[in-house]
Each structure stands twice: as structure tokens, then as C-alpha cells.
Design brief:
alpha/beta; 11 helices; 43% helix; globular
Length: 316
């Protein structure tokens, strides 16, 4: 699949691919493009079989397994990618499809992705265990590239949802320690984010705070598009993360958006509609920052010109 060339500008901590119509346009242009994409997606629904499965890559354990179970409980058709189906089946149960595949082997992915409604990618090297950089790169970066290529080969038209971590855009002592312990995992995850944004797919990138193996629904959930550092101050239960993925999966404001999730300060969360309705697409945030930076430069240049005129009559 050939992806059209896009203008790339750097803002908000990442390189954002911006279609020419957006780079030279306005927030209204972005809104119209989003609406156009939604209409196209709806038009393509007719070419797919009913009850298409949601493919979870990384769904045999951890947060991915919680997402699979939650989707199954809600009546969705669920398919999980597994290298070892015999080991995965007892955890997944009879109601979840298993597709044999390995994210480090690109040729195994198009068949698993075929007819998928959405893709949720939570795979990565195990938490709490050290890993060499070569393994991190092959799993957490090249694995994403393989999934994108598989989606393009399978003419995938759904949403690609990616779970990553806070700290990919913010420096902290905890992030430095994690990169040393796990082969620069945050750096490779940042590159994976950039590849998703440049893929031409509809996507949602969700950065999580430090994951906790606790029950969900006990703390308020905070959603922000401001980059957060990796810190014990920003934590969240895996079960809460699963809820966010399910709620954001088809929410229009989560389309082509990146956001961070963590526990909030309150005991009770705001309604999901309110939490998600404030999200902006990455291109809109990039355009806004780009315009603000241009305004700052004009003000600075104006100040320099004014200062220069004041010095015109000063003898030296």
C-alpha cells in the first residue's frame, strides 16, 4: 500500500505528519477531513462480514488480556494473536478466537488481521524484567512496523490502537532508569508512535501511567494531552486502562489522537463522554502549536524592530 506523501513538522514532542490541506489550512479543514474519513469508513462497512472481530495483539496476558475479556463481556467478537495457541487457550477461554502469529515474523500477520474491525496493540517485553535493546527493538518497534505493514496488506480500514507509556516525551530519573534496565524501551516506543502517525491508518495512541495490578473503578481517571513524565506520581490500574481502550475504541474524538491516562485526584471519575469529548487530533494540536510559535516569532521580531528604531539616534 502506497501512503501519500505528507508534510512533517515537529511539535508537542513528536514529529507529526500533516496532510497538505491541513498544514496550510485551519482547524475547520481538520474537522472536515475527520468527517470525510468517518464517512469513508462507514461506506466501507458493507464490504466486510457482520460481527467482525477486534484483533488484540498482546492479548494473552496483562492489560491486553483484560481488554479481551472486557470486550467479550460486552458482546464483541474478539480475536487474539498468539505464538502458542495451546498455552493461550486456557487463559482466553472458548469464546475468544485465537490467531496463530508472531509480531517479529511479518508474514504471519496479514492472515490474522484479515476482516478485523479494529486492532489493539498492547504487546511488549514483560514488565519488571530486564531486556536487551535488540529484543526491545524487534518487539516494541519492529513489531509495530510489522503490524502496520500487515494491516496495509490486508486493506485494514478500522482503527489501530496502541498502548504505550508516559515518559516517551518527558525526561525523568525514572525514565532514564527504565531505559537502562529495558534497552531504551521508551525511545523505541516513541519511534513506534511516529510510525503509527505516519502510516495513513486511523489510530489512537494511549500513554499510560505506571501500571498497577489492582481492580479498576476505585479511583478517578484523568485524561490529558499534555506529556507526562514517567513517575510514581502518575499511576493507573490495568483494569482502568482496559476500560479506557474499550470506551475510546470507536469514539470520534479519539481518532488520530494521542493522550495520556493516569489516576486523578478525585474519588469518582467524570462521565466517559466528558472525559473523551475534549480530545483533539494530533494534527490540530500540531497546527495550533505551529501557529502559536509563528505568532511568538512575529512578536519577537516586532520587538527587535522596535528596539532597533529606538537605538537609531543613539551615538556610540
Amino acid at each position: 500500500m502506497v501512503v501519500p506523501q505528507k508534510k512533517v513538522i515537529r511539535s508537542y514532542g513528536w514529529e507529526q505528519s500533516v496532510p497538505p490541506a491541513i498544514a496550510g489550512g485551519s482547524a475547520r479543514s481538520i474537522k472536515n477531513i475527520r468527517k470525510s474519513g468517518d464517512t469513508t469508513a462507514k461506506d466501507n462497512e458493507a464490504s466486510y462480514p457482520a460481527h467482525r472481530p477486534i484483533l488484540i495483539i498482546g492479548g494473552t496476558r496483562g492489560t491486553g488480556l483484560l481488554i479481551a475479556k472486557l470486550l467479550e463481556q460486552r458482546g464483541s467478537s474478539v480475536r487474539v494473536l498468539a505464538r502458542d495457541p495451546a498455552a493461550a487457550k486456557p487463559r482466553l477461554g472458548a469464546g475468544i478466537q485465537i490467531a496463530v502469529g508472531d509480531i517479529t515474523k511479518a508474514e504471519t500477520l496479514p492472515g490474522a488481521i484479515k476482516d478485523a474491525k479494529h486492532i489493539i496493540f498492547t504487546a511488549g517485553c514483560r514488565s519488571g524484567r530486564p531486556a536487551r535493546e535488540a529484543r526491545i527493538k524487534s518487539t516494541e518497534y519492529e513489531g509495530v512496523l510489522n503490524a502496520i505493514a500487515g494491516a496495509q496488506a490486508a486493506s485494514f480500514r478500522g482503527r489501530f490502537m496502541y498502548m504505550t507509556a508516559s515518559g516517551v516525551d518527558s525526561q525523568s530519573w525514572m525514565a532514564r532508569c527504565l531505559n537502562l534496565y529495558k534497552g531504551n524501551t521508551l525511545r523505541w516506543r516513541r519511534r513506534a508512535e511516529e510510525a503509527i502517525r505516519e502510516s495513513g491508518l486511523d489510530y489512537t495512541i494511549i500513554r499510560t501511567g505506571v501500571l498497577q495490578n489492582r481492580g479498576g473503578g476505585r479511583r478517578a481517571i484523568k485524561i490529558t494531552q499534555q506529556p507526562l513524565p514517567l513517575s510514581v506520581r502518575y499511576r493507573i490500574a490495568r483494569a482502568d486502562v482496559a476500560q479506557v481502550f474499550v470506551r475510546a475504541m470507536e469514539h470520534p474524538n479519539a481518532s488520530c489522537a494521542t493522550f495520556e491516562i493516569t489516576w486523578g485526584d478525585n474519588a469518582q471519575s467524570e462521565p466517559w463522554s466528558k472525559l473523551l469529548e475534549t480530545l483533539k487530533p494530533d494534527a490540530a494540536l500540531t497546527l495550533k502549536t505551529h501557529m502559536n510559535n509563528g505568532k511568538k516569532r512575529r512578536i519577537a521580531n516586532s520587538g527587535l524592530a522596535s528596539h532597533g528604531s529606538d537605538l537609531t539616534g543613539v551615538k556610540t
